[in-house]
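User
New here, explain this?
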Amino acid sequence: MTVSTAPGHFETLTADQEARLKDVWTHLLKFWGVPVTPAASVARSATSASVASKASKASEHSEKSGKKKRFGMFRKGHKKTKSTDHDGLSLTTTRTRESVEETYNSKLIHDALKDLEPQQIADNFWNMLRTDTPDNLLLRFVRARKWDVDKSLAMFANTLHWRLKEANVDQILWDGDRIPFENKEDGFILQMQLNKAYFRGVDKAGRPIVVIRPRLHNAKKQTPKDLEKYTLLVIEIMRLALQEPSDSASIIFDMTGFTMANMDYGPVNFMIGIFEAHYPESLGKLFIHKAPWIFPPIWSVVKNLLDPVVASKIVFTKSIKDLAEHVDTKYISADLGGEDDYQPEWIEPNPEDDKLLDDTVTRDTIRAERAEIVKEYIEATVNWIEAKTAEESHKWKVEKRKVGVKLAENYIKLDPYIRTKNNFDRAGCVNLQAPLPIDF
């Protein structure tokens, strides 16, 4: 299946959209202590003239500590490096560290970032990437905020803070279900055992499909925290299933057998809230399939909780014919009238599945490679922002894309050395080594 790149992505940006993305990157790089001087002025309507914040203090402390410490893992960003020429235009920067030091102002930090720790947030950003590229990750937030730079940064900063300080999302992914299983987190494990959600096939737009079966839910069988943790694991596994240019997933709510005993507004509110606030542009379509006669009153409540953009992605389907307009029947369960005989099952965790986690030498080698790729990406981004001509900007944009793909490929190598397997892996629902769609 050929999936084309949608408008508003890095490969399809208009000139104005690209300028706004450069603005976003400029604020982030300055926050991280990376000197950058845009070729054109960056709008700073929400920028503090004097930031009495952690970010500002961090910059002042770093200046006292000397340039080497100040730039941390990004200190190679402006050294001359060899790079491939494209159409005769060199990608090697001639800008010196001294020239950018003269123009760098550590107080020009965006307000949305002022209460965050620069190094922690930088680490969290690069760790947040899976098989997506940095630009297309950022563009999710920019598109969600209608290309408003200030609002995009505020949304992105809020998500980074949430991931790092509140939800501990990465740890949930790294632990999978083996750690909770060994820790006897029975409420969470019950969700995995019941297979309330599973991954299967793609829709006709090439988006991975998550099937959710509300009939299996009983609000008394687990705590809200158990459900929230399970929801976050499912969404993070969904992110692993995405491979550009497909960068959103579709959800099928299989309402077969649903009764009022299965209704639980808490998890619904949680899922809606995090999709809107922290996983923007991640939902392709949401199919509510075979909703029973008792569902309309529930829907009248739920629809008022939805952002209009999310609401516009909801499709009600009643029959296999309706659903087959959006999903090939080979990816639709036989239980729903499709051709797929697959039945999800619970496979108990086995420590042998995670033996690569003990190979810290290989893990650290791949992480070191990743750090070097990040430096390459930072350098390409700075040169793209500082480009004085459209031609030069385009050449660095091409380079950014190449390095971004290297970063995604690096994550695929790193994944088995840092992430504990879960039932979605054991059931073969997610395979980072295989292109979409995964054949069954």
Summary: The longest strand covers residues 283-289. Residues 228 and 270 are 7 Å apart (CA to CA).
